[in-house]
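User: Predict the structure for this protein chain, please.
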Amino acid sequence: MREPLRERWRKFAELVCEGASYTSAALASGYSESRARQAGSQLAKRPAVRALIDEIQRATAARNQLSVDGMIAQFRQDREDAKKDGDHNAAVRAGEAMAKIAGLWVDRNQVQVVDTRSDAELADSIDRRLRSLGLAAKVVGPDGAPADG
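Assistant: Here is the predicted structure, written as structure tokens:
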């Protein structure tokens, strides 16, 4: 049986679906500033809240008629149109968009940071910050090897 949703859980889910971070969604849902980060993380893992987020996202996609197949088909058509028009840059960008949607293309950015902390301390700090933003990343050292200490 699905647990009953509290009103602030519902507001949290709606804000997350609008693009808010877990922390800012928790703050706007009435959680205190001192507890918002932890509350956001916990709410995002709660099955009833997760189910509501998934439900809202499915409804939004259906309402906007978004699907991976539909988006790929549109970019495929855009690519063909760009080729016919001789716009090679637009054709390449449409191809990149198709690959990204299909999960075949990942943008990677390499950042070099000068810091007095050890690699392990810096990696831990970056990982905590990314998780607070609702993101995940693999932290690597300057040599490209995992920065795990």
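The chain has seven helices and no strands.
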